[in-house]
Amino acid sequence: MHTLEQLKHGKLAGITRLDLSENLSEFPSEIFELADSLEVLDLSDNQLHELPQDLNRLHQLKILFCSNNQFTCLPDMLSLCPKLEMIGFKSNQITEVPASSLPLKTRWLILTDNRISQLPEKLGELKQLEKLMLSGNELIQLPHSLHQCHNLGLVRLSANQLSQFPDFLLDLPKLAWLAFSGNPFCQDSKSSGQIQILNADIFSLKEILGQGASGVISRALVLDDSLTLPHEVAVKVFKGEVTSDGYPEDELDACLSTGEHPNLVKPLAQIKDANFSALVMALIPAHYTNLGQAPSLASCTRDTFTQGQSFNIDEISKIVEQMESLVHHFTQKCVSHGDLYAHNVLIDRQCHILFGDFGAASKYENLANYQQSGIQAIEKRAFNYFVEDMLSLCPEEDKASPKFQHLRQSLT
Question: All domains of the chain, ordered by start, with CATH?
Answer without folding.
Answer: 196-282 (3.30.200.20), 289-409 (1.10.510.10)
